[in-house]
Amino acid sequence: MPRNPQKKGKKKRAAPGDGGASSSGAAAAGDVDMEGGAAPSGAAPAERPKVWRAGVDDMAGDEELQFDPTAYDCLHALALEWPCLSFDVVRDSLGEQRSAFPHTLYGVAGTQAGSAGGNSLAVMKLGNLTRMRRPRGGDDEDDEDEGSSSDEEEAGGAAAPVLQVRMVAHHGGVNRVRAMPQQPHIAATWGETGHVQVWDVSPQLRELAALPATAATAASPVVRQAPLHVFSGHATEGFAMDWSPVTPARLATGDCAGQIHVWEPREGGGWAVGGAPFRGHSSSVEDLQWSPGEAGVFASASCDKRIAVWDTRQPDRPALSVPAHAADVNVLSWNRLASCMLASGADDGTFRIWDLRAFQEDAFVAHFKYHGAPITSLEWSAHDSSALAVAAADNQLTLWDLSLEADAEEERHWAAAQAQPQAEAPPDLPAQLLFVHQGQHDLKELHWHPQVPGLLVSTAADGFNVFKASNL
């Protein structure tokens, strides 16, 4: 297992089914000021998007769940009119490394409407994300974040979060959406029509920033605006897309025909997309990840069961290519804090950890088979080099700490020190498994908030969850 030399002690594992809920907040960076400003005029109000708070009663209807509110620092659920099967958290100017509740979160999401003409790029602001209410006399009674309201919690729970949305018309469903890390008001969408489009959503972000985070404000009508750039050079539709964290505005997109295009920013604006695609996969390119440290290096995952690492100077073949799984490789995540580590997830429910310093067939650092259905999303934490979140089609989202090892003696001492009996975890659970979140159906994508340590957002066919596990 990869080790984290800065980690001290062991983290408590939550047993499967310890689903719970609460939320945390947004943060800072980029060139979009989200601390306020004048809102654009002429925006007529429309029906407010659906939003609700998930609590014990909401989870109790599923007999498979054993909901424990103490398992979460926060949990909220929300939904738009149509499912959003891809989204991204937008970096904002509210501050880095925030921990005090309530929080505010910005994001972009793409809908999957019933008709091609009914789709939108949703620009969202989710405000008043509050701390999970603790039972009186609970273990965490005195463990409150600075700035949280214990009076409000003890009075029966904080007010519900507020979802504020601005919609931009998008023809066709959105397969994937990504916001540029250096310029978060720029978002790219991979459409089911086979087109990749780049959008400037700064007007929508400015308008949302001017609204009070706790005000129940109606959504504006769908706006029709032209994208900054449209690329129709892919052979078919696709899902793979990633902005470079090293070179601003550099984008890579991959399609279901196995082709990859790299977009280079032009001086003065716009993009130049090379005519010759990167070729090396024999089947659909499912995911792409740029290196966090090398400007011209990216990795790809494919239904040909291989992972490839590319040098942008060599489009005719990958620099490295290995058989990675026994099934289609669906997702990749390149560790931003430990750049030699790559995680991959496959159709057979397995995920693996790779050390790129010794990248070859069967040379993975770790192999996990916990999930019973295809892995649909996985991502390394932005704040802990050994923490990984994984979502699968078995309707479970799991949190892992790969620096942990089993220590039976320490676990016995910990259990003996507890004031009340603790649930026994099944003996076959991996020592690295920290937490299992349930309650969503048809999970598709997850992201850690890049500016709020421990805060996760996940999307599924029945909406979004925003939560923070109490043992992270």
UniProtKB/TrEMBL annotation:
Lineage: Eukaryota, Viridiplantae, Streptophyta, Klebsormidiophyceae, Klebsormidiales
Pfam families: CAF1C_H4-bd, WD40
Keyword Acetylation: no
Compositional bias (Low complexity): 23-46
Repeat found in the keyword field: yes
Biased composition (Acidic residues): 139-155
Gene3D superfamilies associated with the record: YVTN repeat-like/Quinoprotein amine dehydrogenase (2.130.10.10)
SMART domains per UniProt: WD40 (SM00320)
Protein name: Glutamate-rich WD repeat-containing protein 1
Region called Disordered, residue ranges: 1-50, 127-161
Domain Histone-binding protein RBBP4-like N-terminal positions: 62-129
GO terms for cellular component: nucleolus
InterPro entries, per the entry: Glutamate-rich_WD_repeat, Histone-bd_RBBP4-like_N, WD40/YVTN_repeat-like_dom_sf, WD40_PAC1, WD40_repeat_dom_sf, WD40_rpt
WD repeats (start-end): 278-320, 322-357, 368-403
UniProt keyword terms in alphabetical order: Repeat, WD repeat
